[in-house]
Specification:
2 domains, 26% strand, 5 helices, alpha+beta, two-stranded antiparallel sheet, DNA Binding (I), subunit A, 4-stranded mixed sheet, 167 residues
Length: 167
């Protein structure tokens, strides 16, 4: 299980392991915001809360936090599903506009596809062969990336990851 780390202003900063979060808490570099209700961290003679959300005690300035374009991050954005048929096995990447037709390797042109759909589409545009995308590819925001990073959403994180939290 991972821990959501918030900056001092409660904006999402990153995700870390429980061990790393415990060290930040123990060394008074962070405060506990939310904890697991049914788990504890135990030492030989002591029990500690099992962190779910922590907040750093000092603000860390990050000029612009964006999600790196990578194969893994595209799979995560597309929830490890083929964007044409919905299968979850034998996945690869597909350029919506093929590279041979000037398509670039950018967030809005890359989707997760199973090998059979990718082969069927080949060097064509989806409109030419009656294929349809389940959803249009977008560049994820950092908050969207954090939301989708874990396949299971943690309810403790939602108040800090929902857009209304910033208004």
């Amino acid at each position: 299980m991972n821990v959501l780390v918030l900056n001092q202003d409660y904006s999402p900063f990153t995700i870390c392991t429980v061990n790393r979060s415990f060290l930040l808490l123990y060394n008074c570099k962070a405060d506990l915001i939310a904890q697991s209700k049914n788990r504890l961290l135990r030492s030989i003679n002591k029990s500690f809360p099992y962190p779910s959300v922590i907040k750093l005690n000092r603000y860390i300035n990050i000029p612009h936090k964006s999600v790196t374009l990578s194969r893994t991050n595209i799979f995560k954005r597309d929830q490890f599903l083929c964007q044409y048929c919905g299968k979850s096995n034998d996945l690869t990447l597909d350029h919506v506009i093929p590279r041979s037709r000037g398509g670039k390797s950018i967030w809005t042109n890359l989707v997760t596809a199973c090998r059979s759909c990718n082969a069927k589409k080949g060097d064509h545009l989806i409109g030419e062969i009656n294929m349809k995308l389940n959803k249009n590819p977008v560049k994820p925001s950092f908050v969207m990336y954090l939301k989708n990073l874990n396949h299971r959403n943690q309810d403790d994180w939602l108040p800090f990851l929902e857009p209304k939290a910033y208004n």
